[in-house]
Design goal:
The protein is α/β, with parallel strands linked by helices. The protein has a single domain, classed as Rossmann fold (3-Layer(aba) Sandwich), CATH 3.40.50.1820. It has eleven helices and seven strands. Strands 1-3-2-4-5-6-7 form a seven-stranded mixed beta sheet, sandwiched between helices. Helix 2 crosses helix 3, helix 4 (about 135-150) packs antiparallel against helix 7 (about 185-195) and helix 5 runs antiparallel to helix 6. The longest helix is centred in the N-terminal third of the chain and has 14 residues, at about 70-85. It is globular and about 45 Å long.
Length: about 260
């Protein structure tokens, strides 16, 4: 089984166009890009996929050792991209996929000529001189809660992550997405995500990178987006007219406009 089959890869748009790869965040799948990715099909070869353990990826794709760090997920992105013949493409990553994209770019700098990091965070836990938004005890409590009652955790946390309480249907969609994920895989991916520290990797990326940041993001506050953009040698920051952590669902038009302005210039 090749990488495209393992990761349920879907390719649309211009067959001869520049590749644009959309990567989903924790607890999600490629469906989370349905309001954004199609906007680029006239000009790009659009690629969406499911990470190991997510969506309709082959169940055998998940390997506890390989996926015990974000480098394993980055290796999957590199493998998919090489199999599709991607050169000088565009990588669009949401949430944890932002850092996965940074790691993939470092592993093979020829793959992408631009990175779009949507609601990124290189470290979720506060550190001296750095505000990640959580204390270590916050994260440990989050992981313990996830461990003891995954469905209950999902129903509480998904609406918080989504934000936009005036639009409860968005939180309900994210809750449903979380609940479709295997709890054991979700717990391990959450630990890999929330205990990661990729701050040192940011300065190594020479690829032009766009950070898209929302206000009132419970997972990646504005200060984190500013940190990412300022630390990357060729980073820039756009504040979206949007709230919460998932503008690909809550503000797709603003997300499309910001990405288009970046990739088409």
């Amino acid at each position: 089984m090749n990488a495209s089959e393992r990761h349920n890869v879907t390719v649309t748009g211009r067959p001869d166009g520049q590749a644009m790869i959309f990567a989903h965040g924790f607890g999600c799948d490629q469906n989370m890009w349905r309001f954004v990715a199609p906007a680029f099909e006239d000009d790009f070869r659009v690629v969406v996929f499911d990470y190991a353990g997510a969506g309709d990826a082959d169940p055998t794709a998940y390997d506890a050792e390989r996926h015990g760090s974000l480098d394993g997920y980055a290796a999957d992105v590199v493998e998919i991209s090489r199999e599709l013949g991607v050169k000088a493409g565009v990588f669009v990553g949401h949430s944890v996929s932002s850092m996965i994209g940074v790691l993939a770019d470092r592993a093979d700098p020829e793959l992408f000529e631009k990175l779009v990091l949507v609601s990124p965070s290189p470290r979720y836990i506060d550190d001296e001189g750095y505000v990640g938004g959580f204390t270590e005890s916050d994260i440990r409590e989050l992981l313990d809660s996830l461990d003891s009652n995954y469905l209950g955790w999902s129903s509480v946390m998904a609406p918080v992550i989504m934000g936009n309480p005036d639009r409860p249907e968005l939180g309900a969609e994210l809750t449903a997405s979380f609940c479709r994920t295997d709890p054991a895989v979700a717990r391990r991916f959450a630990e890999v995500t929330f205990l990661s520290d990729n701050r040192a990797d940011l300065a190594t990326v020479q690829t032009p990178s766009l950070v898209l940041q929302c206000s009132d993001d419970a997972i990646a506050p504005v200060s984190v987006g500013e940190y990412v953009a300022h630390t990357m040698p060729n980073g820039s920051l756009v504040m979206l007219d949007a709230t919460g952590h998932c503008p690909n669902l809550s503000a797709p038009e603003a997300t499309v406009d910001a990405i288009a302005a970046f990739v088409r210039r």
